[in-house]
Amino acid sequence: MAGSGGIGGRRLVAAGLGIVAVGIVGAAIVFSGDDGSPGTSPTASPSASDVDVEVVAPDVDTSPSATAAPEPEPEPEPTSRVRYADNGLLLPGSPWGTTVGLLQFRGNPQHTYYGEGPVPENPEIAWRYPADQRMCAQSDGKQWCGSGWTGQPAIWERPDGITELVVGTYDRRIHFVDVATGEATRKPFPTGDIIKGSVTIDPDGFPLVYSGSRDNFFRIIALDQGDPVELWKLGANPKGIWNNDWDGNASIVGDLLFEGGEDSWFYIHKLNRGYDDDGNVTVDPELLFSMPGWTQELINKVGDRTMSIENSVVVTSDRVYFANGGGRVVGLDTTDVENGEAPIVFDWWAGDDIDASMVLDEEGMLYVSVELERFNSRSKEVGQLIKLDPSKPDDPYVWGVQVPGQGGPGGLWSTPALHGEHLYVATHVGDLIVVDRRTGEVVHREDLGFHEWSSPSVVDDTLIVGLCEAGGLRAYDLSANPAAPREIWEVSIPAGTCVESSPAVWKGGIYVGSRDGHIYAFKDS
Prior knowledge:
A hairpin with a 4-residue loop joins β14 and β15 (217-222). The protein starts with 21 loop residues before the first strand and ends with a strand. It has 3 helices and 43 strands. It is mostly beta strands. Helix content is 3%, strand content 35%.
């Protein structure tokens, strides 16, 4: 792939935040418990009896041959489906990899792909999963149901012709559903606690799923043996701070896995994907690089230790960007990461918690959603929806939009959707705002209802937003005037329960989780 243009040139190591980075080559290090004791990477899957849940999905008759894929090239060249700008960055709306589908949160490692049309014109509920029971479990002393922030389903077109939805939910399981029927395609994969983030399906043809959980582990799961089989797991770093969840959605670029944890550390692993003599998919991850996302100076600045990396990292051919709960935005040069080197080339402070995933456009500009909870002077100075130019690390600030609260927290938990010259994003207090990405001007604003954490999607000039207070989905036509969305339909979840997770659009269907305990498919009748 070509270089990253505007973000690929300078190698500036930022000063003033006491930066510490650790490069480790050839060590498959896994921390396997809360006590930080080293563990081995091959692990056994937890049994269904190990978890306390409300619903047990039906048995599914599957066979290994149904989802086994022919061995691909180790690092296949991108197909014509993947569209690049002249500088080597992905064009907005480009899919990712050789696997056909919506494979990760926001579709590609720059978070600018939302699925494939057609978008339903008069949608109604086609199915809900499970049909009769709810997906619920206990965590931290309270009941969690369905799917929440971020929780976008992933979808892939399997070699056997079935289009399969894969989603982690609050019943502590990863579920597998036929998008045509709403029926389970295989048994759910159990973890030890709820799953808050989105899963990733391998983009390069390997039958693998990558997922974190609140049980302190990030896992790689094989899909070529019928029911899902755990191949490897990574435990939280014993040197971490905040907590040990894994919420961020992993990106796979080449044979490298990029992931941040709520332990406040960032990791790059070489996957070493392949197949054994029996034709089963294998992985043998080795840790190439890791670093803490915080510094003591940052902790002193913000006055607390909320430093977790909950967002999904942005990755290009030679850069990776992540942000953390302290408001720190970090860029690393990954040109020599196979040798354990990933120097910091960008380091900027937004002042408050950044849980939403950042977006990188085709010019190398970063768009950052920031929460407003600390109410410090930095938040007032830079705003909560921010555009940064990483090619100017000494002065990257382009513009910022203030997103105040209403007597309480404000800002954004939603990741912006990039379409043409505009950004579309929902705010915590409940506004849909449309922003000119060149100038930062808010060109449209309307009320959606409180607690809008779902990230909007744009497919075929149709903007789709999840509704929490109203409990459903709303669509807008952007074809006539992208700066002034025109509402065309709204559909409701029967119980009117919050849609906090993000919708996935795929070839005539919209798929989204609700806090009522179900996943819903909306299609034309």
